[in-house]
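Good morning,

Both structures are done.
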Amino acid sequence: MDPFLTLLHSFSSSFSDRDLSSLKFLCGGKIGKRKLEAVQSGGELFSILLEQQLIASDKVEFLEGLLKNIKREDLISQLKQFVEEREVNAPEDQPDVHERPIEVICENVGRDWKMLIRKLGISEPKLDRIVAANPFNLQEQLFKSLREWLKWKGKDAKVTDLIKALRGCNMNLVADKVEL
């Protein structure tokens, strides 16, 4: 699944009716009135913006401007984080060896996820930034934290370190699942 489309979907689901109305108004100069009147959701608006090539995964300035105008700093920080991660991961895609363990951890670690992330060595300020960017989604907070760990460790990121940290937090069942 395209990470940019996932991000846009996440934005769309967080829009209030007022946000959507403001966005439609702001897009009035770029999108025809008839098309805008038919828009009922953020997803529909984003589809039009994508079609007209006003936004793309490597072209987010217009989107950032829209979000600034409706005062959605929370979404702007998520957008900036997306751009940063894209730049860091541009030369090579995500390391395949970590995809499954991260998926297993995200599916099985609950509210104690911060203990695991601290055990992996992620700093409190980074943790706070991730939580602030995803305030109502624990699974996304855990996922972004694990991605931050991968980015920080780079080539030194090892599945055995994840397993050791899980066991250090008494999350043995999850560690066993990762080992499979």
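Second structure follows.
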Amino acid sequence: CLLRIYIAFQDYLFEMMLVVESVILKKLSGFPDSKIGPLQIRKSTEKFLLFLKEHFDQLFGKMEEVLLQLVLNIPRNVLLPEDKAHEQHPYSQEQFQALQDEIHQLQQQCRAEVAAGQALRAELEEKKGVQAELEKIVQWFDGLENICREHGTSSFKESFAFLTQNAKRLQEVLKDVEEKSKKIKKHDQFV
């Protein structure tokens, strides 16, 4: 309230000085032989404004004290509408501090829960990626099982055993072919 009053008085002071300056300029325009120019009038107006502002600040300080003591002071026996909650629910400084501590603790719990929620969301995203990979592996095993059924094996274990036996046979055939190839190369070298 006091700041608004101060600004209003100050604005009025500035406006008044502009009016005084324009009146002086009009009066001087009637005297063409005058040696005082608009620049000198502006400097003089600014000096006078500075002088008035310093005195105004001193006076406003005194006025502020009087306003705070006599006009804007609310007696202790007066209860404002916004203070009715304090009347209905009085509290001590210890109770207030206990509430502040509880608020601080609840804020920390909220932060911890938010962090935990973010961690759980990140873990869920990771699990979705792993689940997608597992689904690909299951599809691959289903494809293997379908191929094994087409070749006459009924269960996956039997199919896997069948594939293992076939792999071993292929390895033996590969070794056999490599040995024969080496023999053929040796025979070709001697010939």
